[in-house]
Write a structure and sequence with these properties.
This protein is an all-beta fold and 90 residues long. The chain is built from no helices and four strands.
């Protein structure tokens, strides 16, 4: 499923970290799954903004938790028009 934002995202995003846990895996291509997820933290450094996202993958038929992921995404302030005081490297 693809989610459309009600605005155009302007910034340079990159992955900060990913942790995958296979709890009752492996994940299989021919099995139906259901996912849940939530943002668990947001923060800022002098050069970036970031958020941590946690998601879980459940087998649809048995409701058994199969895998989980914790992921951090960062956005560079220099790549955003929201921070004009930060040089872009030009």
């Amino acid at each position: 499923m693809q989610v459309r934002l009600p605005f155009e995202a302007k910034g340079v995003g990159f992955y900060g970290a990913s942790e995958l846990r296979f709890l009752n895996g492996p994940v299989k291509a021919d099995v139906s799954y259901q996912t849940k997820g939530k943002i668990i933290a947001v923060g800022v450094t002098s050069k970036t903004e970031y958020y941590w996202f946690e998601s879980e993958l459940y087998e649809k038929a048995s409701k058994k938790l199969v895998a989980a992921m914790r992921h951090m995404t960062r956005y560079m302030k220099a790549g955003s028009p929201l921070y004009p005081e930060i040089p872009t490297g030009q």
